[in-house]
Amino acid sequence: MPSLGRRIFAEWLGTAFLLAAVVGSGIMAQKLAGGNVALALLCNTIPTGAILVVLILIFGPISGAHFNPAVSSAFALRRELSWSMATCYIVAQMIGAIAGVWTAHLMFELPVWQFSITPRAGAGQWLAEAVATFGLLLTIFGCIAKTPRAVPYAVGLYITSAYWFTASTSFANPAVTVARSLSDTFAGIAPSGVAAFIAAQMAGMAIAVIVGRWLWDNGDDDCQDRC
């Protein structure tokens, strides 16, 4: 098993690359889309889904490639990760996410330190975040249970899809949410909306843990033998 230091570093670096891709592609999309918001969102979506596949493939064997406090918390709730390790992961993810945002700003010669003024609030947005996170965790649990090698591709495709079918464009990640509040760009979220987004994400995660255990850890093979 990789050392603790390598696992934590993988979570930090992977989350940093994820946020650099999310925010950087958003900045590039806004520059090139000529005011067409739908086109800008599409240009933001594709790199995000693509980088997730790559990051999970390269860092999955080291740390599990969580890059998301909701995912780490879910595995701790499932007793597949200790809470002490989950805490280390979450700290690394938060720091890495902010580092990724700042790196994107530097690459595009924007002020490093900034706050978003993009409002993202309301019952529809909060429900969307709960649904997005619920679906993400079910994607992970289902693939791990039946087709583990499909996890990178399934997660990338799920987020690509969820960008478009959720009203919030699927943050589905507390570290992403906090970091994007520090970027007044296409991908930003006003700091006032962060707490509600995270609460909705964690609620979706908790429900996914319950449903995932019922669907895939409840002796379905025994049922097949009896039926």
Helix content: over 70%
Extended strand count: 0
Mean pLDDT: 95
As residue ranges, the low-confidence spans are 222-227
> From the helix content, strand content and strand pairing, which structural class follows?
mainly alpha
Major sheet attributes: none
The separation of the N and C termini measures 40 Å
Order of helices and strands: HHHHHHHHH
Overall spatial form:
globular
- The percentage of residues in β strands lies in under 5%
Helix count, DSSP H or I runs of 4 or more residues = 9
C-alpha-based Rg, rounded: 17 Å
Task: Describe the fold and architecture.
The protein has 227 residues and is mainly alpha-helical. It has nine helices and no strands. Helix 3 packs parallel to helix 8, helix 4 packs parallel to helix 7 and helix 5 packs antiparallel against helix 6. The longest helix is centred in the first third of the chain and has 29 residues. The radius of gyration is 17 Å and the shape is globular.
What's the arrangement of secondary structure elements?
Elements: H1 4-32, H2 37-63, H3 69-77, H4 83-107, H5 123-146, H6 151-165, H7 174-180, H8 194-216, H9 220-226
Helix pairs in contact: 1-2, 1-4, 2-6, 3-4, 3-8, 4-7, 5-6, 5-8
Features of this protein?
9 helices; 227 residues; globular; disordered C terminus; mainly alpha
Short description:
The protein is mainly alpha-helical and 227 residues long. The chain has helices spanning 4-32, 37-63, 69-77, 83-107, 123-146, 151-165, 174-180, 194-216, 220-226.
